Amino acid sequence: MLGGTHMARTSTGASDYDFIFKLVLIGDSSVGKSNLLLRFTRNEFRLDTQSTIGVEFAYKQLVIDGKKIKTQVWDTAGQERFKTVIPQFYRGSEGALAVFDLTKLDSFDHIPTWIEEVHRHTPSDLPIVLVGNKSDLVDQRKVSREQATALAEELNLSYMETSALNASNVEQAFVLLVTSIYQKKMPKQM
Ligand code: GDP
Ligand code: MG
Question: In which broad location class does this protein mainly occur, judging by the first location in its UniProt entry (predicted)?
Answer without folding.
Answer: membrane
